[in-house]
Write a structure and sequence with these properties.
heterodimer; A: mainly alpha; 78% helix; 0% strand; globular; B: alpha+beta; seven-stranded mixed beta sheet; six-stranded mixed beta sheet; 16 helices; 23% strand
């Protein structure tokens, strides 16, 4: 197991080199000059040139790329042009909020999805099943920005149960303040989990080993808790894995509306201001996160299902 | 019954105590749309950073509330010599928030730093070539040749006065926990989220700030700022969505205000291309646009029609009226120029700027009325700039804002050719205007210099290398108990003047 994980980590190296090269080259094609963004449109040619020199933008491309690689290896991921701070520092300040939303929304999703998946599987094909499916399809289809505003209007402005946005200090304050944004993200995760878990439960219930268990004389509840549910949850692991990779950089809309200083809004702001080092550094950082999340997912998978081996 | 009554009394009493405490520690909460990037004045060009810096630092002189004149800042008085080459400042008895006095040494250090290679604003201060410290409270600056804007530029945030000893000792780290002589001091800064400020106990304006603390919350989504105000989580929401202004104003407990900042929106015309090389065509395009309708439709009434590409600022001629709406006359002019059947042209617009996009669609409809068929081309902002700069465009919706109160910066940008942007990429040029530009920079502030600016703007208006559109307003919304808040024409705000009524 340990060796397998080490092997997977080593395989990361070529992947990362590919990612750094790609993100570097793509940004070269992107229009817009960071120097003119920083100095405003009224800067003179000499001032722009001085700024480019200061940031090393006048160096040959391959030199710039090597600098970038050096920054990735030393762990700073480069220095932001506008914030004037190492990118890792910017990420460190925002990562907790993003991770909090990842974890919180996943918990919310599981709490919502599990009972409804079980109920739907148990009442397969009947009115309850159909009704539940319709509701969750609507949840998937609902645009997050709209759902954000609806929740704000009813739960924050109307009933006053929650703040309209922003983050607080400390665990409890954020448990309260991040509830609405996590709920928005969690609802669509819940919809994904519910659909797949329901299908998996139905599949498993028809498996031969369930018949065996029944023939052994196990009671229905025992069969469900010991055989059906654990075996069906395996597919949920991979869905959560994919979803988590997405949430890490993909919750920009929710972050913007609820004023959560997460990684998504950092990336968007960097793109708007053409803060090239931040865009590059974040791209690589996101890629690393996705690879790590995938690895963790695979490990969980292997732990949950003895037939799967980490190779 | 008795215990319950006591409980109630207890609750009431504690409520009274709590409100009492709250009244003692007044906190003003402001939702703003920009995330400050840096608190180093010479390295900033974004609104969030500039607004925050102006609450923490002071400048020698500062723009007054009208935005057209100057008033004392750290300098309580000043003189400018007849030849404009010597500026003498007398400093007031001010202290930095840590209690150390502000001296002439700090002034020299700060201005030299603003003029240095590392400064994004160096060209504003490099004309000042000599400093002479007369005493701790008096400093003389000298110029090697006359350059009138240099004086006004001292009112810009980039010329903020910093404590020399601390900046030299701490280097860049100073700006993570800066010390200034402004009304507030930095208490905490959570990047991307909020800046907490506390009253500077050593501030030189007696009795100010009125509030004990101020929080600038970063809320980049305009609707979210309004929601926060309505929920009572902030006292002031800056830049609410323009289409919600009227509705907001009608709400109980909320007051809306607006001001016209130094900004002008226009359409650049590429005068190297036909038919825009013909002044009659450019005039016709200006007459074909119903500017009042644009202000109503695109800005929801928050703004006013523009007579030129210059923001309304010092020396503006109040008598200069925008082009009227006269499609019939526009058609005549087009016919005279040989375009009786109109022509086709492409209009560039920044896809990320909602207001400009709406304006482009309206322009397309209005120009169609006089036979001009416009194809709207949406581009990313950076690409739009590169495209107009390279000169491969017909028309482009754009705008300009002034950083300083001296109109020299923007006239040089939008009307002078050759200069930094060759009349903002229109490539239009006027010999007379170029001459006046050189003269104006050597002429002392006063009516004579004012007349030069008025003539330049008149030439710009008459020869129309742009379709002049409007000056959009900056709006804000506050709770009714917020008193004394306004956004200045320079776009920033003075929280030291704000108080919270009970």
């Amino acid at each position: 197991m340990f060796l397998a994980i080490l092997k997977r980590l080593l395989m990361l190296v070529p992947v990362l080199i590919g990612i750094t090269l790609l993100s570097f080259l793509l940004l070269q094609i992107m229009p817009g000059d960071p120097a003119s963004r920083a100095l405003g449109t009224r800067a003179s040619a000499e001032e722009l040139e001085a700024m480019r020199q200061l940031w090393g933008l006048d160096k040959p491309l391959w030199v710039q790329y090597l600098y970038f690689l050096r920054d990735c290896v030393t762990g700073s991921f480069g220095v932001s042009i506008f914030h004037k701070q190492p990118i890792i520092t910017l990420v460190a300040a925002r990562l907790p909020f993003t991770l909090a939303i990842v974890a919180y929304s996943t918990v919310i999703a599981l709490v919502i999805a599990l009972p409804f998946a079980i109920l739907a599987a148990a009442r397969r094909g009947r009115l309850t099943d159909v009704a539940i499916r319709q509701v969750f399809v609507v949840l998937i289809a609902m645009p997050p920005f709209w759902l954000c505003y609806v929740l704000i209007l009813f739960l924050a402005l109307g009933l006053g149960w929650f703040p309209t946005g922003g983050v607080g200090e400390g665990f409890l304050a954020n448990l309260y303040r991040l509830f609405l944004p996590s709920l928005v993200v969690g609802l669509s995760t819940a919809a994904l989990i519910q659909q797949s878990l329901r299908a998996a439960l139905i599949d498993t219930m028809q498996a031969d080993y369930i018949d065996t268990a029944r023939a052994k004389g196990l009671r229905g509840r025992e069969i469900f808790l010991r055989h059906v549910l654990p075996n069906s949850l395996i597919s949920t692991i991979s869905i959560i894995g994919v979803r988590v990779s997405w949430i890490i950089g993909g919750t920009v809309v929710v972050e913007k509306i609820f004023s959560v200083p997460g990684l998504g809004s950092l990336l968007i702001d960097a793109i708007v201001s053409r803060d090239l080092p931040v865009i590059r550094g974040l791209t690589v950082f996101f890629a690393v996160m996705v690879v790590i999340v995938n690895l963790i997912t695979d490990i969980c998978y292997a732990l949950a299902d003895p037939r799967v081996r980490l190779e | 019954m008795t215990p319950r009554l006591n409980m109630k009394a207890l609750l009431l009493a504690s409520a009274v105590v709590l409100t009492g405490l709250a009244a003692q520690a007044d906190t003003l909460r402001v939702a703003m749309g920009f995330d400050p990037l840096s608190l180093d004045p010479i390295a900033s060009s974004d609104n969030g950073s500039i607004w925050t810096q102006l609450l923490i630092f002071d400048t020698l002189i500062r723009p007054d509330r009208t935005g057209e004149g100057l008033e004392p800042g750290l300098a309580e008085s000043w003189t400018v010599s007849e030849d404009g080459l010597t500026l003498t400042f007398k400093l007031r008895d001010a202290k930095f928030s840590d209690g150390t006095p502000v001296t002439a040494t700090d002034v020299q250090f700060s201005i030299e730093r603003a003029a240095s290679e590392a400064s994004g604003w160096g060209r504003f201060y490099r004309p000042i070539t000599g400093f002479q410290i007369v005493s701790d409270h008096e400093i003389v600056m000298t110029l090697s040749e006359p350059f009138t804007p240099a004086f006004n530029n001292l009112a810009l945030f980039a010329a903020a006065i910093l404590p020399k000893a601390q900046v030299e000792a701490k280097g860049d780290a100073f700006f993570d926990a800066p010390v200034g002589s402004g009304p507030f001091m930095l208490k905490s800064w959570t990047r991307g989220s909020k800046i907490e400020l506390a009253k500077n106990p050593n501030y030189w304006q007696e009795g100010k700030p009125h509030v004990d603390e101020a929080v600038l919350e970063v809320v980049t989504e305009p609707s979210a700022r309004v929601i926060k105000l309505e929920a009572g989580e902030v006292d002031i929401a800056l830049d609410p969505p323009l289409n919600q202004l009227q509705e907001l104003d009608a709400k109980d407990g909320i007051t809306v205000g607006q001001t016209i900042p130094y900004r002008a929106d226009f359409v650049q015309l590429n005068t190297t291309r036909k038919p825009f090389d013909d002044q009659r065509v450019r005039e016709a395009l200006n007459l074909a646009i119903d500017k009042d309708a644009l202000v109503q439709g695109v800005l929801y009434g928050a703004g006013k029609p523009a007579a030129s590409a210059m923001p309304v600022m010092a020396y503006a001629d109040p008598a200069l009226a925008p082009y009227g709406y006269d499609p019939a006359r526009a058609k005549e002019l087009l016919a005279e120029a040989g375009y009786a059947d109109g022509f086709e042209a492409e209009l560039l617009v920044d896809s990320g700027a909602a207001t400009s996009r709406n304006a482009a669609i309206a322009l397309q409809a209005m120009l169609q009325q006089v036979g001009v068929t416009v194809k709207v081309q949406m581009l990313e902002g950076g690409t739009q700039w590169e495209t107009t700069k390279s000169g491969s465009y017909d028309m482009s919706v754009s705008y300009t804002t002034s950083d300083t109160i001296d109109p020299d910066q923007i006239i040089g940008f939008v009307a002078v050719n050759p200069e930094r942007a060759n009349a903002y990429h229109t490539e239009w040029h006027s010999d007379r205007l170029n001459e006046l530009y050189v003269e104006e920079r050597k002429t002392l502030n006063g009516p004579e210099r004012g007349a030069m600016f008025q003539e330049m703007v008149q030439i710009l208006h008459d020869e129309a290398p742009y379709i002049f559109l409007y000056h959009p307003a900056s709006a804000w919304a506050t709770k009714d108990n917020v008193q004394g808040f306004e956004v200045l024409p320079t776009s920033n705000f003075r929280l030291e003047d704000v108080s919270l009524a009970d």
